Amino acid sequence: MGILEVKGVGKRFGGLQALSEVTLSVAENSVHAIIGPNGAGKSTLLNCFVGKLIPDTGSVMFDGQSVLGRKPHEINQMGISRVFQTPEIFGDLTVMENVMISCFAKRDGAFRLHPFETVAHEQDIVEQAEQMLMDVNMIDKRRMHAASMSRGDKRRLEMAMCLAQEPKLLLLDEPTAGMARADTNNTIDLLKEIKEKRDITMAIIEHDMHVVFSLADRITVLAQGTPLVEDTPENIKGHPKVKEAYLGESA
Amino acid sequence: MKFLGLSRKDTRFLIIVILLTLATPILLQPFPEGSGLATFNAGYPDLMQRFAIFGIFAIGFNILFGLTGYLSFGHAAFLGVGSYTVVWMYKLLDYNVIWGLPLAVIFSGLFALLIGYVSLRRSGIYFSILTLAFAQMSYNLAYSVLTPITNGETGLQVYGNDAQVLLGANEPTSPHFFGIVMRENFWEPTFGGWSFTFNNGYYFTAVIAIIVFYISLRIFRSPFGLMLRAIKTNQTRLNYTGINARPYTLAAFVISGMYAGLAGGLMAAMDPLAGAERMQWTASGEVVLMTILGGAGTLMGPILGAGFIKYFENIFSKINDQVLHGWFAFLPDGLEDFLIGVSHFFVGKSWHLTLGLLFMLVVIFLPGGLVEGGQRIAGLFRKKKTTGGGGDPEHHPKETPHVAE
């Protein structure tokens, strides 16, 4: 039994069958990658996990409970954190405040009215956030205005915000999309570091095969809305169906 | 030096605000009586009360608009609810404002809960339109259908045959706070050419204004305030961080509605009248202007904005052609008439034109409002210390600007 169990998921947008009969299982403490060419339905699938889309058919179970019909913040409170394709951070706030919000979300849940405490006096939150920033080597940037940072740093910050919640499952949506080679390698290193340091389950949606092969324990290849194969990276590499999906039928 | 749970910097800030508020009757009376510039004096009770009341209104509005970015165009509705509540308490009980004011806050809070619950299902422009629609509905109801409660176009006031069950034999017959009559002055000293008025009503509103300013300061520094600022910056991220933004925005909406109700109640505490026009959309628009002009999202901005607009409304509208003749009398006739002709468009009844131009200038050149202007001036004096450049770690431009020091 994996922590995330997807069974027979289908989603149709008008005349386009974006997903059909997607079944996969993400095992606990593993890195599971979902790869596929453009338009394969990777992002649609991910949006079905986090409550942004509700599939027409099938079920998505997380930790024994269905996520379907729940709101994004409820699903997050169940233990799924998400990293976006373009980093989504609180640009007008400082780096420290960004991470503190995650810590508050973890401690206080989806809503708590606390208008008379003072942020600076919340010792446990401050310590947690500082520890987290040290873990990702950003402690010297804590007072910086988040929007003014480089893209790589924004990605790092977003990752820190997700990790501060100690999620049971971390979803990454093309974490290296649009990055220069150097930034891509930095991100891969960061992800490897996270994987080694913590017992964490990750599901990565990725277009770039290079990123995936160095990280994943298992890979699902998606093409035209259905899973082609699911196997270890070694076996996927030479798989004829994968080549076909990526390079076209003539290859 | 920690005071009331505030940091050292905030304590200093609060003390400055308290001193300025308490010294207002002196500060606003800089010119001697009878001099040509005496027109610009603003230290009379009626106007000072309005500064404090609209300050409260704007401080509350800023908790919603400045922090969450949700622009409400219907806050005047709460102002009206507050006023009606207080006048009703005069009619039913007696002229002591102690009964009406807390109720004004409670009723406007409940009303805000209702309107906010519906309006906050949408964001952006749709939210603004919904609040505007609600406020206009309230205005029209108060004006016509609800006449038994609001006394329609005449406005609600106290009549001789009202119950006033608590009214004692020797009790004052105008609003008072345990015998302190609002419209009376407790001290009217004259020093040389200068004369000052220390009014009960002003000090009553000023003390309340300081208390609610302190509350807003605490909200700004609280985790709740942090969440509100996060809502303004990136609601997507907030949702995917496991936080439900709606109750936070609703709480901010209700709190700002309560501030508006308190301000409306205080209006009726200074002058025992309540009319439907207090709920009109122009009044809602005014508090938006005050907040933006002063600097949305800053602590001091809304107060500055409120003072600025009320000052213009009262002082510039007083300057008529006669006053202008007095100023330009020393010039040759042709030039005098020309200058008066030009000035005529900017003062007296046309003061809105001046305000409009100033508002445009501020929005274009100082997007952060008057507060940003103050910071830039302060920055000029401190130039040596600043290192410049946007990238250094010590530099964090948008951390809640703190000003007016």
TrEMBL record, chain A:
Domain ABC transporter: 4-249
Swiss-Prot/TrEMBL keywords: ATP-binding, Nucleotide-binding, Transport
Organism of provenance: Sinisalibacter aestuarii
A Pfam cross-reference name: ABC_tran
Superkingdom of the source species: Bacteria
Keyword set includes Ribonucleoprotein: no
PANTHER family, sorted: CONSERVED COMPONENT OF ABC TRANSPORTER FOR NATURAL AMINO ACIDS-RELATED (PTHR45772)
InterPro entries: AAA+_ATPase, ABC_AA/LPS_Transport, ABC_transporter-like_ATP-bd, P-loop_NTPase
Name under which the protein is recorded: ABC transporter ATP-binding protein
Entry GO MF terms: ATP binding
From TrEMBL, chain B:
Location of this chain's protein in the cell: Cell membrane
Topology versus the membrane: Multi-pass membrane protein
CDD domains: TM_PBP1_LivM_like
Chain segments carrying region Disordered: 385-405
Ranges of biased composition (kind: Basic and acidic residues): 392-405
Transmembrane segments: 12-31, 51-71, 76-93, 99-118, 125-146, 201-220, 247-267, 287-312, 324-347, 353-374
Protein name: Branched-chain amino acid ABC transporter permease
InterPro entries: ABC_transp_permease (IPR001851), LivM-like (IPR043428)
Keyword vocabulary terms for this entry: Cell membrane, Membrane, Transmembrane, Transmembrane helix
